[in-house]
Amino acid sequence: MTVCPPGDEHRKRAGLLQYRTHPAVLGTVIAYRPGPAALGLWHDLCRAYKDRVGDKKQDVQPPYRALEAILRAVLGTWARWDVSNGQAQLLTAAEMTGEDRHDVFAYWGEAFLPDEPGHEAVMRLADLIAATPALPYPDLPRPVAGRRTLTWWPGELARWRLAEDLAAIEWNLGGKEPTRFVLCTDGTLAAIGHELPSAPDAEGRLHRLLPRIKIGTAAAGHSARHAVTVNAVTTLLANRWYGVATVLLSNPDQPLAVSAHTDGPPWKRRLNVPAVAASRRLAGLPRLTHRVPPFPDALDENVIAAGTALGAVRAVAPESITTPGLGRGHGMEMFRRIESHIDKHCEAYRDKSPVYIEVPGLSVPTAKTGVRTSGPIQPQHLPAAMDAAGIDRLLLGVLYHDDEVRSRVQREIARQWHLGDDFVASDGNVKDNVIPGRVDVLFLEDKAGALAHGPATAERRQQQLAELLAPFQEEGRVIAAICETEWDPNRKYPTPEQKKKAEAEDGKWPSKAALARLSISSQYIKQAPPPVPTVKKNGEPCKPYFIERETKAREGGLANSTENALRDLLRGLGVIDHRLGTAFGKIPLPDYWHIGIHIRRHAQPRQYGQRNTKPAPLTIVLTAMRPVGGVTEPWTTWAYSPITSQWEPYRKTRLAVHSVDLGLDVSSFPTIGDESHQASAAAQITEAALLAARIQLPQSAPMVIYVNGDTSEPIWAGLRDENLGQQPPADLPRPALWLPGHGLPRTQRPLAVVRTITDLERIGRPTGGYIWGKSGQWERTKTTESPFQLVSDDGSSYLPDFLLTTVPRPWAAGPPGRFGSEYSRFAPEAVQRQGKNGYAHTAVRLTVIPTADNADADLIGKAGIVLINQGVSWDGRQTEPTPSRLAKQIDTNHPYYRRSCEEPEALIAVPGVANT
């Protein structure tokens, strides 16, 4: 184990599939630099391709995707055509003959530019590259910690070298035979020949999972060491070509499997045209060391049909496709075995994992304790929490269709607020003082059908709801509604058109928007599913055990749904009790404004074959929260949106966002240089919000900002690993693009910015913990949910980087969710259980970036961990701090969130980064 600060040598440590690299692992790099003329020819070629394809791209992949795949297949190892920093060069991990270089570029270029203009540029470029001498790369760039841009080739080569080492291992994963992973041209590893079949379906057909290993670049945080991560996934193999984007072509005689992309619309896929044409030409050249497999001209449905024996072609199914009989994911045992195999077979990475040591004195239990609060807000705490939310009196309305829903909600209100079993509220009459002086209850049957499904518009529903609720509106009274939409769970749709029409006439979305325009918060409740059957389809009676089990599951699901509906309704009102303050335990409760920023870039809808010419819309919401007093006091929550352009109580901003269309048009925001409209809008809106926070929030206090690094790093350059602790560059388009709040006067800037990351490709999969045993040796624990802090590179101190590992809830719930905890999917015991999902540790990485000299980075990091562990209405551990989660939920709870053509976690163009 690596050294650590004195006194903590035997403290618990985190196991993590993350490994630090060094320049020696890159090996020999050969550069072919054809000079400035090649760069000009490349630009001529790109222009000719654009002129040929035009705006009607017809879903044709950029041709350089095929170029890299063919280069690597011909060479048998890593190769890259790199255009950056005003230079074009071919980089390889082994020497490549001039003939091979000429033929690859010539045949590839002829495939998409067979005639003038452009053909001459292709041939001249091929001649230049073939005549260029091989030179050892003069000075390998220093590994930049955590750099994400694809134009930084040393990071890609470091991932490739580890993948080569893993491909050479005979893996003992619990199966009868050793498992081999084949290296693909995209840098992933696939267990080709070791696919995992499902049980036969009703027609005797088999579906298959392809185990894969992915190597990623780690988010290094404040460490200066570059690192790579390892993660294992299961990929469903498609049995039809619809929507398939990636095809794997393997051949036992070749060291690499070719990862080829597809072109064309989802309903008519074809392999990338340049790749197919070039492979046909290159496959006939006997002199090539490694031939490119001849790609098929047409994608035959019979080749990948369910039940067909697998050949050289494997189609990767889209992520949205599910198949009965096959689960997803690997269990914890798989990742433990990966860790042990790397330690045994990969000497360059042995004991090279960064050291994370458990944070002392920080208690973050996942169950209800004296520190952690679970369950609904107790009635004695509601008045103070309502005061903090700015609500004097609340009318809780229940708008229902079905009597079963009405009685279920009434029982849940009585249970949560301790009203007794005899609590009854009559229809149409307000039940006053259910919580004395603060909360009234009203049950109303939706006889007008304002919530019902159908073609009625939101405006029509708003009129009906206004008439229905008009008699109960009073000055100073806030109305919130639990709603039920009438729905037949047994309803079937004979045709896709009828199903699409029914979805378009779903009453939930327009009625929710109508209520928001009436300043009424709403939460929709689940209807009861059909009763548990007592007779099988063949007429035989069901077994009593089956009836008892299914009835218990049905009742439990309904009870949870009803309880959560009331809890989520209060969360939407901004009613938060003392649980956040209590969660800090022995840690000092910081008197900060905790501000979470949520940013989501929408996909821009377009017609097939047409390019997008308008910037994609953006959704941005900020939430600020802080305790109104001590540990036992509630928290107040405010929110900001460009729709309101001011800070208001959480409830009001949420209603304002939900009452209008989702997504902000950013085309009017000015840009500087290569800055994107989305980055410009996000930076300027955030800066305006933080400036307004000083005068619009109810009390002046220091600010701590929480942002999601996976979505925000492309906007704020100061969030990226290579820029941590650095000063803004002189060519930054605007100061606001460095860090949130950086453009404000120095005395008004936040104390710190906390970057959170949840992408396991950047964190590395946790494998458990290590404790110092009585035998004087490190012993592994199977699971851990502890918080850890990163040790500095020299081992003398700690960095303000934190890791919180979590056991998924299905796994923690008991044995049914623990498939893969003792054996992998390859073991004989797993043959009959391939339909189960495998669960393993997840993690959240927090990096504290101090922006003020008096910022206590350790305290701020610990506060972030507490705010992840303790939710407002959710009993489980969250994936982001509570301020960020509340901001995100304003977006995700929008009536039309699922219809906004969302593109979750989509990256925004990075200013200043070369794009090849």
Q: Could you describe the 3D structure shown?
A:
The protein has 21 helices and 32 strands. The two termini are 41 Å apart. Helix content is 27%, strand content 19%. It is an alpha+beta fold. The strands form 6 sheets. The chain has a 10-stranded mixed beta sheet, sandwiched between helices.
In short:
This protein has 916 residues and is α+β, with helices and mostly antiparallel strands. The protein contains 21 helices and 32 strands.
Number of helices: 21
The major pleated sheet works out as: 10 strands, mixed
Spans where pLDDT lies below 50 across 5 or more residues: 900-916
| CA-based shape | globular
Mean pLDDT: 87
Would you tell me the structural class of the helices and strands? alpha+beta
Taken as a percent bin, the fraction of beta residues is 15-25%
Number of strands: 32
Taking the alpha carbons of the first and last residues, their distance comes to: 41 Å
Radius of gyration: 30 Å
State the helical fraction: 25-40%
| Strand order within the widest beta sheet | 16-30-31-32-27-26-22-23-24-25
Characteristics:
single chain, 916 residues, alpha+beta, 10-stranded mixed β-sheet, 6-stranded antiparallel β-sheet, 21 helices, 32 strands, 19% strand, globular, disordered C terminus
Architecture blueprint of SSEs:
Layout: E1 13-16, E2 18-20, E3 30-32, H1 36-53, H2 63-75, E4 79-84, E5 87-92, H3 98-112, H4 119-131, E6 135-136, H5 153-167, E7 182-183, E8 189-190, E9 196-197, E10 208-217, E11 227-236, E12 246-249, E13 258-263, E14 270-271, H6 273-283, E15 313-316, H7 332-345, E16 356-358, H8 382-388, E17 393-400, H9 403-416, E18 431-435, E19 439-445, H10 458-469, E20 477-483, H11 496-504, H12 508-517, E21 521-524, H13 544-572, H14 579-582, E22 593-601, E23 618-627, E24 635-640, E25 648-649, H15 650-658, H16 677-696, E26 703-708, H17 709-712, E27 752-757, H18 760-763, E28 766-772, E29 778-781, E30 787-791, E31 798-806, H19 809-812, E32 842-850, H20 857-869, H21 882-892
Parallel strand pairs: 17-19, 17-20, 20-21, 22-26, 26-27
Antiparallel strand pairs: 1-28, 2-11, 3-5, 3-6, 4-5, 7-8, 8-10, 9-10, 10-11, 12-13, 12-15, 13-14, 16-30, 18-19, 22-23, 23-24, 24-25, 27-32, 28-29, 30-31, 31-32
Helix pairs in contact: 1-4, 2-3, 2-6, 3-4, 3-6, 9-13, 10-12
